[in-house]
Amino acid sequence: MENTKANKRFRSQEWFDNPNNPGMTALYIERYLNQQFTREELQSARPIIGIAQTGSDLAPCNKIHVFLMDRIKAGIRDGGGIPMEFPVHPIQETGKRPTAALDRNLAYLGLVEVLHGYPLDGVVLTTGCDKTTPAMLMGAATVDIPAITLNGGPMLDGWWKGKRAGSGTVVWESRRLLSEGKIDYDEFMSRVCASAPSLGHCNTMGTASTMNAMAEALGMSLTGCSAIPAPFRERMNMAYQTGKRIVEMVYENIKPSDVMTREAFENAIIVNAAIGGSTNAPPHLQAIARHAGVELDVTDWQKVGFDVPLLVNMQPAGEYLGESFFHAGGVPAVMGELKKAGRLHEKAMTVSGQTMGQNLTGWESQDRAVIRPYDDPLRENAGFIVLTGNLFDSALMKTSVISKDFRQRFLSEPGNEGVHEARAVVFEGPEDYHDRINDPALGIDEHCILFIRNVGCVGYPGSAEVVNMQPPDALLKQGINHLPTVGDGRQSGTSESPSILNASPESVVGGGLAYLQTGDWVRLDLNAGHMDALVDPAEWQARKDAWTPPVLECQTPWEEIYRKEVGQLAQGGCLELATAYQRVRQTMPRD
Ligand code: FES
Ligand code: MG
């Protein structure tokens, strides 16, 4: 970095080099000298770059970042900056009870405080596991400090008996086989463990790969960052380049608000459909957009993204896993195909300092079995359908995972395609579901729809991934692998279940699902985008009048704070009061 660029005064100099306030400057600087820094370097007018470390022993999906740290720091040093690593509250999807979703907003809050209150001029956001990516982007958006994401990358492909075993997806498949009596407990464990062969995050197109693709589509990572498998040498190179680039971004003053614009979010929605991305992407992107002050509505997912074809052949919508996706070109190859079809906002600015269109020059699919061209996709219209009706204001359905068999059984009544009427069976939560799903008294047959409630942001708390309910064992044994399921919670991005989920408002705050009873008939009309309980309006109103909100017991102080402040999934499940704080960097904290 040329010294001439350094005649700019950095925010960190208010702490470390302020001759007008020697008392505080001395206090700020002395303790940073007792580790690895000298006074000379901290007063050298070079930018100080934070590295938000999301990996730890408790967060194995992101643990690779512990090993990438040397390369990130080397890049920052070679770029002319001074790196300072700091920890982020762990958000491990598979380890945190009651759900990691509860901790996305907690890690977000922590990041905002660090970026605001410490002498930082820019930040590398390490990402990986599902909620780490949105938490980091939400925080960067609120503070609006120069920021760049670095994914840790997916694990290598898992294999079981000569077949690809994808993270999460193998769990859902193995659960069915166990229920059907086709495998035992030991084989169940072995199959699932085989899907995790190395460091890295889920190797399927689950929420982790999806959200990192979203970060890249938003323009917040370097081109090609998201798909590189964690153990590959390209991942180390990317860590170095990302470190180097953030220093330039500080000099160029490229901020999240320059990158995460409405156009960038529309690009992300389109990419999500093309990759067969997770149903968790809408609430996470919604949350990032709100903290960035960008108008985005849950209905935009259908308006902008529904007619986008599925290009990526990756589990759960397809067959391959992360290694093949990377070799086929990863996210820039998908975006290159979308660009050729005129589907992207090419002028959107990115962290590279170039537009998205410029970044994508020369990128296209390198393996058409894995990334299909736009005019020969795996399926047409692969985006989300946004449903409404008397059960909820909005709920989502991911169309890329609706199997032919499911479509024929439920949605192909002659002359009435897309419409299905069924008897509802209602569960009060995952415990109730597990207790009763095999109870013959419920009379669940292949024409029923399963509902689950009390599992949204306030209800669970945090919103649980439980909507992809498996049918009763008796139906599985007949070869019925899926019933339609509906709920106010979420489901894993690795699930191939064609559920209707993220129903908002949730039942515990008085959403329509609260008034449904087992035995009611419901109508699903996919063409009209409606789902309604076929209950007489007077009777429906009487149930509403008789309803009282359930008493919710919190086990930790954060649960109580979260429940008071959190909004609904359709609005991103944000801490509502936090959305009022924008561009926090423009205010300097007191000494
Ligand atoms: Fe962490 Fe899937 S569980 S990435
Ligand atoms: Mg999950």
TrEMBL record:
Superkingdom as given in the UniProt entry: Bacteria
List the InterPro entries: Dihydro-acid_dehy_C, DiOHA_6PGluconate_deHydtase_CS, ILV_EDD_C, ILV_EDD_N, IlvD/EDD_N, Sugar_Degrad_Dehydratases
Q: Which UniProt keywords apply?
A: Iron, Iron-sulfur, Lyase, Metal-binding
Q: Does the keyword Magnesium apply?
A: no
User: Domain Dihydroxy-acid/6-phosphogluconate dehydratase N-terminal spans what residues?
Assistant: 46-359
Q: Which residues form the Dihydroxy-acid/6-phosphogluconate dehydratase C-terminal domain?
A: 370-572
Q: Which GO terms describe its molecular function?
A: dihydroxy-acid dehydratase activity; iron-sulfur cluster binding; metal ion binding
- EC number annotated for this UniProt entry: 4.2.1.9
Broad EC category: lyase
Keyword Iron-sulfur in annotation = yes
Q: Which family does it belong to?
A: Belongs to the IlvD/Edd family.
Q: What is this protein called?
A: Dihydroxy-acid dehydratase
Protein source organism: Paracoccus aestuariivivens
